[in-house]
Amino acid sequence: MEHRIERIKKQLHSQSYKLTPQREATVRVLLENEEDHLSAEDVYLLVKEKAPEIGLATVYRTLELLSELKVVDKINFGDGVSRYDLRKEGAEHFHHHLVCIECGSVEEIEEDLLGDVEKLVEGQWGFQVKDHRLTFHGICRVCQKQAVAASASEGNEEN
Amino acid sequence: MEHRIERIKKQLHSQSYKLTPQREATVRVLLENEEDHLSAEDVYLLVKEKAPEIGLATVYRTLELLSELKVVDKINFGDGVSRYDLRKEGAEHFHHHLVCIECGSVEEIEEDLLGDVEKLVEGQWGFQVKDHRLTFHGICRVCQKQAVAASASEGNEEN
DNA sequence: TTCTAAATTGAATATGATTATCACTGTTAA
DNA sequence: TTAACAGTGATAATCATATTCAATTTAGAA
């Protein structure tokens, strides 16, 4: 953790930005909640717990800054809010997401599934790929099981 | 064109919605601008040309409705607005996009590039894929050429 | 056709996320 | 020390989208 903060600090400095206490607190929240896909508001509430004096505007500014530096990726799952997702250290590409249309859960896939597809796009469309966004919409493992269980008990009145 | 409108009409009727003049005008605009990725505001302005009495709220409602019926896909390229893209007739999956980070142009790929990847996701992650969103960010053919031209003329003062 | 209930509309307003403004503070470097 | 200046928090402004509501239109029933 400290190592990653140190690294982000260097990234900031390299563009003559500072790692202020507010920015550090924000980064720590992102690191501690790496699994989640927090909105700016979510981040704000979590940062407030450690640094109650921080303002919402600062959180937005920090997230925007981290986004420019490619420390986080700004993503959008179609609800009205942007979410911020830490990029894995050294990751060249954005990771993929599995969004469940039943329960709304979001799972991440770190593996790069698109190597071949990107080559195809570069070759066939002459498009020089720099990054990608891939999201699958469907039904997660848990909801699939629930669906099976529900249909199995069909006919036996349970309520 | 008429054929496609007829088909959308049937889809609406099957859920007991009506193809009102306002909805028809909106659909026509979408059909006539199939190449583009129009925002709600864009659609509104274009529909106004044929049906000046239409309200913005109606356009939003219509686009939302068409989105539910999977006639259009609501997409988001990271600027603050949703864009609406007609789904090709009979297309099971959403098509892909190539977004140029230089000039902002958006190209579409109709081919389904993800057959293999989806099988992998279903097998390895147990996730039942219903749809996907895939966008590549990079540099389009035109901007690549311009970059080459610019670097070639480097040193010769041209202005 | 006439009637009726439900669907749809436009205008206006409300909402909610994000951005801009601005006065103030802390930091840096001469 | 002081003079920039980056960074901050509170607040107001913006902008896309959703909602409300009274008026209108529509598809069938009678």
Automatic annotation (TrEMBL), chains A, B:
Key word Lipid metabolism present: no
GO MF annotations, alphabetized: DNA-binding transcription factor activity; transcription cis-regulatory region binding; zinc ion binding
Residues reported in the UniProt entry to bind Fe cation: 132
GO BP term (any one): regulation of secondary metabolite biosynthetic process
Signal peptide per UniProt: none
CDD domains named in the record: Fur_like
Keyword Transcription carried by entry: yes
Gene3D superfamilies in alphabetical order: 3.30.1490.190, Winged helix-like DNA-binding domain superfamily/Winged helix DNA-binding domain (1.10.10.10)
Any coiled-coil regions, as ranges: none
Keywords for the protein's UniProt record, in alphabetical order: DNA-binding, Iron, Metal-binding, Repressor, Transcription, Transcription regulation, Zinc
Cofactor note: Binds 1 Mn(2+) or Fe(2+) ion per subunit. Binds 1 zinc ion per subunit.
Cofactor: Mn(2+); Fe(2+); Zn(2+)
Annotated binding of Zn(2+), by residue: 100, 103, 140, 143
Organism superkingdom: Bacteria
One Pfam family recorded for the sequence: FUR
Protein family per UniProt: Belongs to the Fur family.
Protein's name according to its UniProt entry: Fur family transcriptional regulator, ferric uptake regulator
